[in-house]
Amino acid sequence: LGQGIANAVGMAIAERSTRASFGEAVSNHHIWCIAGDGDLSEGVSHEAASFAGHQRLDNLTVIYDDNHISIDGPTELALDDNAVDRFRAYGWNVVDLGEAAEDLDALESALHDARAHRGASTLIVVRSHIGFPSPTLTDSASAHGLAFKAA
Question: Which region among 38-42, 46-50, 111-115 has the lowest average model confidence (pLDDT)?
């Protein structure tokens, strides 16, 4: 957990270096990463996000599903910090879509804005409902591993 964010930061650094060496005609990529509550509770993600903010990696966007569920249960069992405030403190551009996780137009707009944003990495925050539309697994930690049953 959390290593994907660190990998994405490394890819963004490599992309920036390649672009500086060979120009945008050869290398002009944007790095996208999807993360959940469990990822952002891990120390490696804190360090990587802090470094990305320090480096102003504007070719990096993390899409964070803030559904308040980890594989062990509600995230409040293990942490109570505010990840959005933490990323702002690291110098990231934060776009909080709130409960609009299923609003594809809002998400598409946020993705375009993130790619165009300059001077900082972007964190797009969505709040989905894990396990939806299952009547028994929606918003349940069990959705991480149980099979959906036929209705």
Answer: 38-42
b/e string for 35-70 if b means 16 or more Cβ within 10 A? Answer: bbbbbbbbeebbebbbbbbebebbbbbbbbbbbebb
The pLDDT > 90 percentage for the chain reads 65
pLDDT value of residue 22: 96
**Higher confidence at residue 4 or residue 101?**
4
The structural domain count of the chain equals: 1
Chain-centroid distance, C-alpha 27: 23
Q: Confirm if 1 and 38 have CB atoms less than 8 A apart.
A: yes
32: containing domain: 3-144
Closest by alpha carbon to 144, among 40, 42, 72? 72
Tell me the CA distances in angstroms from 83 to 14, 29, 60, 114, 151, one per residue in order. Answer: 26, 26, 17, 18, 36
